Amino acid sequence: MKRRTFLNRVALLGASGLVAPELLFGLTGCKEAVEAAGLSVGGWDFDEVIDRSGTYSIKYDRAEKMGGKLPMWIADMDFRTAPYVSDALVGRVKRDVMGYTSIPDKYYEAIVSWVEARQGWRMEREWVNYCPGVITGIAAAIECFSSPGDKVIVQPPVYNSFMQYAEGLGRIVANNPLIFENGSYRMDLEHLESVIDDRTRMLILCNPHNPGGMMWDRDSLVRIAQICERHGVIVLSDEIHGDLALGGRRHIPFCSVSGEAAKVGLIFTGPTKAFNVAGLHTAQTYIPNKELRERFQDYLDRRKLTEASIPAIELTIAAYSHEPRWLDEMKLYLQGNIDYVADFLAREIPAIKVVKPEASFLMWLDCRALGLDQNGLVSLFQDKAGILINNGESYRQGGTGFIRLNIGCPRSICRQAMSRLQAALR
Ligand SMILES: Cc1ncc(COP(=O)(O)O)c(C=O)c1O
Fold first, then answer.
1. What string of DSSP letters covers 117-184?
2. Which of 162, 170, 183, 236 is the residue whose CA sits 20 to 30 A from 419?
3. Is residue 35 domain-shared with residue 48, that is, in the same domain?
4. How many of the other CB atoms lie within 10 Å of CB of 136?
5. How far apart are CA 153 and CA 231, in angstroms?
């Protein structure tokens, strides 16, 4: 069916009053058509440009210090936090008394129900535990399950904190580089086995992957689990971008794919990316294997890292126990930004190729055809176009010639970025 006809039919259905706007939106994923029927889906305005100056934002302060660049780097978004999440925080603060707090049952219940409803995985309540942050948790797990001199496998180009904390703790980083093929990446499962030796203790998996936004398929996850289980290697699976699965895709939690995955896997995730509350530092772990879970909890306990703050508890319950309409609509907006940037580059600057993310708000741009060295490439974006980005080389092997662009912002910022880039290349 032609798009115009489809929009007209959805609009007619909406105007008939037979179907509620939310249901119509949920069924069609098409806000444009719902609005054409004179109906509103939610009161959220992702086009609103919010002034973040004076809020101690790392993203904005650095951009300002560098002479007022467009801040499209570090991974937080420029949208307001989901209203029910801010309401929960404000409501709690207004009650004034902020004493030491235990984690209530409904925290665990909200998480278990969310994962079952959104990801189709039924967890036991005991598998879930609070953790102060995903990277805090991964760094703690590196210390808990390995010793200095042991090997930690990563799959570059990948989120730089994995290497930073593993190396900072005296572990040896071993690379199993991703394979770049047909404009996207896959894991090199044949090579993985050859990287493992008797000093290898763990593999850090980024699921979905940052940068690149790949959502790993079930088959690859099953095979990773088989290989790791065979060699006594545990898998730390960072799933912080999982709730930002785009295009109707469903996130697959690593530990859910097989008995082997449940035996070797520890999932680190949290509400901070999807609900844009990164500065509030909260996360959770899902660890089905009792022995690994108890050892890790004991490690955190002995360092007093198991006490959650009041905002952490309130925001997690609010994020996971509401109808996720805000999240779904925000993800449609992100998809619109991705499509806009990808179409613009394909049309106007075809030498820059986009690795289209399947999840999240980070675009990985293949700029190798511009023929610039890495300093020249970063300078093109930052000095000439005035866009603050993340340098592809910080993601290590395979990152040269690439940059990472954060499009979690109003579309007008994406438009400005694209026209600045075009002008800089003229
Ligand atoms: C893959 C990945 N893991 C973890 C983090 C940070 O998580 P946290 O703030 O909970 O340490 C980020 C932030 O960009 C990320 O992209």
1. HHH-----GGGEEEES-HHHHHHHHHHHH--TT-EEEE-SS--HHHHHHHHHTTPEEEE-PPEEETTE
2. 183
3. no
4. 16
5. 13
Reduced to 3 states (helix: H, G, I; strand: E, B; else coil), residue 359 is: strand
Residue 272 CB less than 6 A away from ligand 1: yes
The string of DSSP letters for 2-38 reads -HHHHHHHHHHHHHTTSS-HHHHHHHH--HHHHHHTT
Same domain, yes or no, for 315 and 333? no
Residues 303 and 171 in one domain: yes
Helix (H) or strand (E) holding 389: none
| 400 plus 271 within the same structural domain | no
Tens digits of residue pLDDT in 98-113:
999 999 999 999 999 9
Tens digit of pLDDT for each residue in 295-322? 999 999 999 999 999 999 999 999 999 9
- Domain total of the chain: 3
180 and 208 share one domain:
yes
CA distance 50 to 101: 33
Residues 311 and 174 in one domain: yes
Pocket test for ligand 1, best of 159, 165, 251 (most atoms within 8 A of CB): 159
CATH of the domain at 329: 3.90.1150.10
Residue in the structure block whose two tokens are 């438009």: 415
Contact 397, 191 (CB under 8 A): no
The closest alpha carbon to 421, from 379, 369, 391, 364, belongs to: 379
Pocket flag, ligand 1, residue 133 (CB < 6 Å):
yes
- Check if 352 has its Cβ closer than 6 Å to any atom of ligand 1: no
pLDDT for 249-286, tens place per residue? 999 999 999 999 999 999 999 999 999 999 999 999 99
Residue 38 burial by Cβ neighbours in a 10 Å radius (0-12, 13-18, 19+):
exposed
Average pLDDT over residues 35-48: 70
- Evaluate if pTM is beyond 0.90: yes
Domain assignment of residue 85, yes or no = no
Atom of ligand 1 nearest to the CA of 278: 9
Closest atom of ligand 1 to 272 CA is 10
Ligand 1 pocket member 244 (CB < 6 A)? no
Does the pLDDT value for residue 163 go beyond 60? yes
| End-of-domain residue from the set 321, 351, 384 | 321
Mean pLDDT of the 26-39 span: 52
Same domain assignment for residues 346 and 310? no
User: Which residue range forms the structural domain that includes residue 315?
Assistant: 97-321
The 10 Å Cβ neighbour count of residue 49 is 10
Same domain, 343 and 287: no
Averaged pLDDT, 379-392: 98
